[in-house]
Amino acid sequence: IPADQVQANVVVKSGTGILAATGTSSGVAISSYATAPSAVLDTEVTTPADNNLILVGGPAVNKLSAQFLGKTYPAYGEDSGLKEGEAVLEIKENGANVALIVAGWAGEDTRRAAKVLQSYKAFSTQLKGTSVKVAGTTSSPTIVTSA
């Protein structure tokens, strides 16, 4: 299979309307919900490995983001692993699940990464691998690198 093609297993379950796809060539998993699960604080998640997670906020403000990035909470500035003005979308393994980290150096940077996630279809051809860096502005984000 060429590197730019991905095979997927698709599972559709009744009840919650869950559609899950797991890529076999990149280890990336994507889930979408007809009805989104409830948002909770990082401190309200008792067993992270039991769930696919979308973690919003970097290691300075989100304990789970710090955990998945291998940082000691709270990790500010250079200790966060981010550079000033940088935003990232990064997928990490979470047992049989995954955690998607939406983070930035500052709140505005995190918003820029969240905008890419919100506009997934517009960026889907640029979202490759398990980590992307996002530049630009919140109203006009751009993908800088993909790894």
Report on this model:
The protein has 147 residues and is an alpha+beta fold. It has helices at residues 63-68, 107-118, 120-123, and strands at 8-12, 18-23, 29-33, 53-56, 87-94, 97-104, 131-136, 141-146. The protein has a five-stranded mixed β-sheet with strand order 4-6-5-7-8. A three-stranded antiparallel β-sheet has the order 1-2-3, with no helix packed on it.
Give the SSE map.
Elements: E1 8-12, E2 18-23, E3 29-33, E4 53-56, H1 63-68, E5 87-94, E6 97-104, H2 107-118, H3 120-123, E7 131-136, E8 141-146
Parallel strand pairs: 4-6
Antiparallel strand pairs: 1-2, 2-3, 5-6, 5-7, 7-8
Task: Categorize the overall geometry.
Answer: globular
Q: Structural class, judged by helices and strands?
A: alpha+beta
Radius of gyration based on Cα positions? 15 Å
Strand order of the largest sheet: 4-6-5-7-8
User: Unreliable stretches, pLDDT < 50, 5 or more residues?
Assistant: 4-30
Number of strands: 8
